[in-house]
Amino acid sequence: MAKLLLIPLDDTVIFPTMDINLPVDATGEDRVLLVPRHDGQYAKVGTIAKVTDTIRLPGGGRGVSLESEARGIIAGAAEADAAGRLRAEVTEHPDTKPVDGRTRELEREYRAVVEEILSERGADERVSAFLRSVVDPGPLADTAGYSPDLTFEQKVRLLETVDVTERLALAVELQRERLTELQVRNRIRNDVESGAQKQQREYFLRQQMESIRRELGEDEGSVTDEYRTKIADAGMPDAVKEQAERELDRLERTGEQSGEASMIRTYLDWLVSVPWSERSDEVLDPVRAREVLDADHAGLEDVKDRITEYIAVRKLRQERQVEVDKRAGAILTLIGPPGTGKTSIGESIARATGREFVRMSLGGVRDEAEIRGHRRTYIGALPGRLVRALRDAGTMNPVIMLDEVDKVGADWRGDPSAALLEVLDPAQNHAFRDHYLDIEIDLSQVLFIATANVAETIPGPLLDRMEVIRFDGYTVAEKTAIARDYLWPRQRERNGLREDEVVVDDETLTLIVAEYTREAGVRQLERELGTLLRKTATKIASDSDVAPVAVDLDAVRDALGRQKVFQEAAARTAVPGVATGLAVTGVGGDVLFVEANAMKGKGGLTLTGQLGDVMKESARIALTYVRAHAADLGIDDDAFDKREFHVHVPAGAIPKDGPSAGVTMTTALASLLSGRPVRHTVGMTGEVTLQGRVLPIGGLKQKVLAAHAAGLSDVILPERNRGDLDDVPEDVREAMTFHPVMTIDEVLDIALEPARTEALSA
Question: Which top CATH class is 476-560?
């Protein structure tokens, strides 16, 4: 151990075998210790150098020439001598360790790596010759310190590694990093589109791109900072915020040029677009809500009552600070024919409650991902329609109209109706999980309103989660009021007419309703009014002196043509074998004329009119009943011999099915075989059993409205449907007579004309 003069070298590392000139005063010193220093911190190991000469430096200064000999390990703290110079106790550590097999292997590997580096750089052959001249492993490892590519910290690590084998291993590691960087740099220069995915290459590329971006003023940090700000301002729940921050960290690690970057950015864009903290200020005033609903729609009392109740309950909960279970949501489903105002009432509900309104049409949707979203592993993946609806609404508590929910399909891509179970189930939708976002979204504050034309095509589990409100259509008086107060003013405005330029009275509107439309809703009625007003607008535009125009019968016939709807029950039922039945279709209630006839043949029953399985069974039951009770009906025993019977339901292009035509088919066959025509004022509905019992049916209100519109005055219905008459509007009940029955005998007594004609015989 020797006490040597300590010469600090700022950010410089000198290795043994290196010669150097320094502008220091080393008078009287044979050897000194050269110690690397950075920010006032000294390395633990220095280089012992021999003072070989005193030299004059450019500029007149003096210095010394030094020859490095070996490593020196500093023992203890340095002390100042009498001249104020630092001295330290130093233990010399020469490279004297015996060379083993691993050292020789590392030595060969080091030479090979450095040779590749020199080859990549196209270095002078003299450098290779110098490397080959170094035979000892210690000095060979120290040659790595000559590299200008090594950082100061890496050179200090190499100097402080006194064990020759470990130092050689470190030198190999450092030179391999240099080789990788050189190979990547050359590969980029020669082939920009190289697809290698080595970790070191990606790291180097990112470093280069960051440098280029900084030169161009396109700092990647600004992108991540922007997302970080958006995430902080979005008001996300804690779990969602953690997910967003994880994805943002991934974006920072992968870099903007990574293939994943665009996918991550798209995901973050969707995540921050959801209005997590936005809520509409609800207007919880039942009186005002009812006024809005009454102003926007005529009739529909059941719907208006239910919405008013919903608002009243929420008001009481809020005022009395009642803890509300998230599973207590309302899923209203409006089922009824087209044109009855199901969709438009959603906008009125949103306006009455002060919420945003979003409409989602589900007709024809067959892909489950439309509801739940695509998983992010798919190219072009997007969130489901629910997430997009929330984004469009800008709040977490909008009114979302799920239109045409009865027309949702299913195929190999999944069953969207099954996905809707989670959306429409109040017990689950507070934690709805979209496949794309893969986080829980609270839909319990959303007011869902579903619409459908018929309930039969809605899957049972889905229908079970809905609160059904029926839209059964309008009476003639209601249609007239709607036309006067809503449709006429709207069409007049759309056709550029002022209120004082065209006038119409209720009698004319009723004429249009009765003779040009027969529908449950008012869509066709509005089209007819639009046609009428366009004709009027043409007259006024051609000759302004004709205003004001009073719409009368002649104007209606001129614009709309001849009468389109006729009261044909009397003409159709004038002969035996025709009965008037009442049915419910996808467009509302309708009147069906069931025709029966017989001909010579070998026996049997022919059914036409695109009848479904249920109606076919009803026809066979009807024939069996009539045949079994022929004597009671005054039918000859031989009326069935060698006869074929044909039952037809007109409008054969339209499929028909349902359990309510049995009574009508039985009456038609009984009328045919007994020769007694059916009363032309009677319409009937009900299913019949083999024993002649009349079973209850559904859709009574729609059927009665259709009978009223068709000019019928009597309706035969099952006894068990008597209570459903309360749903029929009062003005219709007063204008018609209802006959609740329990057996087919009662039906025939009411429906058939009393005067008997000669029964059909062979």
Answer: mainly alpha
Domain range 101-190, CATH class: mainly alpha
What confidence tens digit (pLDDT) does each residue in 366-421 have?
A: 888 888 888 888 878 888 888 999 999 999 989 999 988 888 877 777 778 888 88
Determine whether domain 569-751 maps to CATH 3.40.50.10230. no
CA 408 to chain centroid: 15
Q: Is the pLDDT of residue 218 over 80?
A: no
pLDDT digits (tens, 9 = 90+) for 589-603: 888 889 999 988 877
Structure tokens at 590: 């309708």
Contact (Cβ atoms closer than 8 angstroms) between residue 93 and residue 73: yes
Q: Mean of the pLDDT values across residues 574-597?
A: 86
Cis peptide before 548 (omega within 30 of 0): yes
Residue with token string 């590694």: 161
CB distance 266 to 225 below 8 Å: no
In the chain, what are the domain boundaries? 2-93, 101-190, 214-273, 286-469, 476-560, 569-751
Q: Which of 304-308, 572-576, 582-586, 614-618 has the highest mean pLDDT?
A: 614-618
Q: Please state, in angstroms and rounded to a whole number, the distance separating the CA atoms of residues 652 and 610.
A: 6
Could you give the CA distance from residue 99 to residue 283 in angstroms, rounded to a whole number?
Answer: 89
d(CA 513, CA 565): 9
* Residues involved in catalysis: 660, 703
Q: Is residue 76 helix, strand or coil?
A: strand
Encode pLDDT of 85-94 as tens digits.
Answer: 888 888 888 8
Q: CB neighbours of 44 closer than 8 A, spacing ≥ 6? A: 73, 74, 160
Give helix 152-160 / helix 164-190 axis angle, nearest 10°.
150
Number of Cβ within a 10 Å radius of residue 192: 7
Give one DSSP letter per residue of 718-729, joined into a string.
EGGGGGGGGGS-
CB distance 336 to 472 below 8 Å: yes
Q: How far apart are CA 729 and CA 197, in angstroms?
A: 75
Contact call for residues 672 and 628 (beta carbons, < 8 A): no
What amino acid is encoded at 3 in this protein? K
Q: What is the mean pLDDT of residues 97-105?
A: 80
Query: What's 286-469's CATH class?
Result: alpha beta
| Token pair in block for residue 243 | 């997910």
Name the nearest CA neighbour of 706 among 481, 390, 472.
Answer: 472
The domains spanning 476-560 and 569-751 adopt the same CATH topology: no
Q: Write the DSSP assignment of 533-568 as a string of letters.
A: HHHHHHHHHH-GGGPSEEP-HHHHHHHH-S------
Q: Is the pTM of this model over 0.70?
A: no
Q: What is the dihedral angle through the alpha carbons of 243, 245, 249, 251, rounded to the nearest 10 degrees?
A: 80
CATH class of segment(s) 2-93: mainly beta
Under 8 Å between Cβ of 717 and 741: yes
DSSP string, 385-415: HHHHHHHHHTSSS-EEEEETGGG---BTTB-
**Which amino acid, one-letter code, is at 396?**
M
Q: How many angstroms separate the CA atoms of 509 and 522, rounded?
A: 12
